[in-house]
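To the wet lab folks,

You asked to see what we're planning to order before we commit. Fair enough. Below is the target structure as tokens, and below that is the sequence we designed to fit it. If anything looks off to you, flag it before the synthesis order goes out.
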């Protein structure tokens, strides 16, 4: 039960700052660490893959610490905005998420479920011809850690 709550919290964090990934091969570009590309009015940056130690000695549900290898990927540089997500919500099956009165436009989208985010990624893939998806937990931790080994990313 405790592990499910932790995973839910991690997904909530993930959804607050939604990243979408596409493989380097799908873009057919030369990869180098400072390479960026724009697709669907979104900026993506190349992240060189590598291996890191995932897990924690401080939390029993995050043991054992183990090596995880992440491939080269392009990752969204910014959170998905209400403006971007609202394009998807013009479909009859999608209701625009509530903005708490904070405004829409270029503000990061909030109140989006894991299912909504995956539906958006599938829709965006269909619209652009590129593959978009949410990162896995290990991919997200690798990006967020940015090479650090501290307790928190």
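Sequence we intend to order:
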């Amino acid at each position: 039960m405790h592990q499910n709550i932790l995973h839910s919290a991690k997904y909530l964090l993930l959804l607050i700052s939604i990243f979408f990934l596409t493989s380097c091969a799908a873009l057919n570009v030369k990869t180098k660490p400072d390479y960026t590309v724009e697709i669907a009015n979104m900026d993506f940056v190349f992240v060189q893959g590598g291996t890191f130690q995932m897990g924690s000695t401080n939390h029993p549900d995050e043991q054992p610490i183990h090596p995880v290898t992440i491939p080269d990927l392009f990752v969204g540089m910014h959170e998905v905005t209400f403006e971007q997500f609202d394009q998807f919500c013009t479909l009859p099956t999608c209701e625009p998420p509530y903005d708490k009165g904070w405004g829409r436009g270029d503000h990061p989208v909030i109140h989006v479920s894991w299912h909504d985010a995956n539906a958006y990624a599938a829709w965006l893939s269909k619209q652009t011809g590129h593959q978009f998806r949410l990162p896995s937990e290990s991919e997200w931790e690798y990006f967020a850690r940015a090479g650090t080994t501290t307790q928190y990313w």
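Structural context that might help your review: Residues 1-19 have pLDDT under 50 and may be disordered. The first strand starts at residue 21 and ends at 23.

Thanks,
Computational group
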